Amino acid sequence: MENLMILPAVEPKRFSWLNEYATDAEVITELPQREKKTLPFIEANTKAVELSHLKNECIVPVFSKDNELTISHPAFIETVAEAVSTFYNGEAIEMPEIRVSHIIKGRIPEAIHKPANQLLESDKTIYYERMMFCIEVPTIYETVEGNKLTLTVGGVRAYNHMNLYSKKSVERFKIFVGFKNLVCCNLCVSSDGFVEQLEVSNTSDLYLRTLEMLNRYNPAKHLHLMQTLGNTSMTEHQFCQILGKMRLYQALPQKIQRNIPRLLITDTQINAVAKAYISDDNFGSYGSDIDMWKFYNLLTGANKSSYIDSFLDRSFNATEVAQGINAALHGDDRYSWFID
Asked: pLDDT confidence of 38, banded at 50, 70, 90?
C-alpha cells in the first residue's frame, strides 16, 4: 500500500495497556501450541472462502451513477491486515479467516442472451453482498476460566447498508478487536474495541482508523472484565427468570423498551441459549448454578446464528447484557428489570 501515513505514536504505546488491570494478563512472545479449529466464528448462512477467491474470481461493485469503484472486500481485508501487522509488529499474525453470504450472480455482456443451462463458468460473474473476516494474533492470549482466548482483529462489510445506486460517497464498514474463545470460537467484543459505523472514502483513511481503534483498545481491561464474570453465579431459577424476561422484552411496547437497556438477541437465539444450558459440553449447567462467564458464552454462542451484517452489534450487546446482569446481581439498578 502506497502513500500511507503511519501514526508515530502507535508503536511506543503498543503495550500501554499493561496497567493496573494487567495483574493477570501478559503478552506471550512464544507461539503457543494451537488447538485444532473445528468451529467457525459465525455460522448462519455463511461459507468460508479464501482471499484469492475474492481477488481473482469476484467482481467489484460500483456506484451506478458515476461508475466509481467501491472499496473491494480484498482491499478491506488487506488494509486491516496491514494495520494489524504494523501495530502488533513482532507478534505472530495468522492469515485472515473469511466468511461470506448473500451471493450476487451476474453475467458478462457477451453472455446476456444465453439460456441459463448453456452458461459457461467464464460467462458468470459473482460477488458477495456480505463479508466478515477475523485475523488472530495467537502470541497475545490469556486463559479465562480454563478457556484460552487469543487476540483477534476483524471487520464486516455489508453492501446492503450502502446505496450503490447513487454517486460515490463515503463507504461503511465495521471493525473490531477483541478475543476469540478457542474452545468454541465465540468472539468477545467490548465497547473500546468496536467501531460500528466506520465511514471512509479510501483505504488510507481505513488504515488510519483501524490503527486508532487498536491504539484505543485496552485488552487487559477487557480481560479483567471477563475474568470477573467467573466470580458471580446465579441459580437455575434466576437463569430461567432472565430467559423469561428476555422473551418478554421482545413483545414490550417501544415506550417501555426505551426504559430498559437494549437487548438485540432474538427469540430463536434465546431458545438456543436455553438448549445450550442443558446440553452444551463446555458451558451447560443444567441442574446447578451457572456462573456469568458461562452465561456470557451461551449468549455469544447463540449469536453465531446471526447474519453477518448484525453479528458484531449483537456480539457487543452480549457483552453489555452479561456485564449488566452481573452488576445487577450485585445490586446495580440498570439491568435490575431482568432479575426482578
From this structure: low
DSSP, collapsed to helix, strand or coil, labels residue 315 as: helix
Considering only CA atoms, give the Rg of the chain.
22
Q: Which amino acid is at 178?
A: G
Instruction: State the Cα–Cα distance between residues 320 and 338, nearest whole angstrom.
Output: 13
The continuous run of DSSP H or E covering 186 comes out as strand 186-188
Place of cell 457477451: 110
The answer to whether the CB of 190 falls within 8 A of the CB of 179 is no
DSSP string, 200-244: ESSHHHHHHHHHHHHHH--HHHHHHHHHHHTT-EE-HHHHHHHHH
For the chain, what are the domain ranges?
A: 35-217, 230-338
pLDDT, mean of residues 164-188:
93
What local confidence, expressed as pLDDT, does residue 164 receive? 83
Alpha-carbon distance of 94 to 84, in angstroms, equals 10
Tens of pLDDT, residues 189-207:
999 999 999 999 999 999 9
Asked if 171 and 178 count as a contact pair (C-beta separation under 8 A), the reply is no
- End-to-end Cα distance, the chain: 55
**For residue range 111-128, what is the model confidence (pLDDT) as tens digits?**
888 888 888 888 889 999
pLDDT of residue 64 exceeding 70: yes
Cα separation, 129 vs 158, whole angstroms: 6
Express the helix, strand and coil content of the chain in percent, nearest 5 each. 40, 20, 35
Spatial separation of the C-alpha atoms in residues 26 and 23, rounded to whole Å: 8
Q: Quick one: which of 184, 192, 124 has its CA closest to 149? A: 184
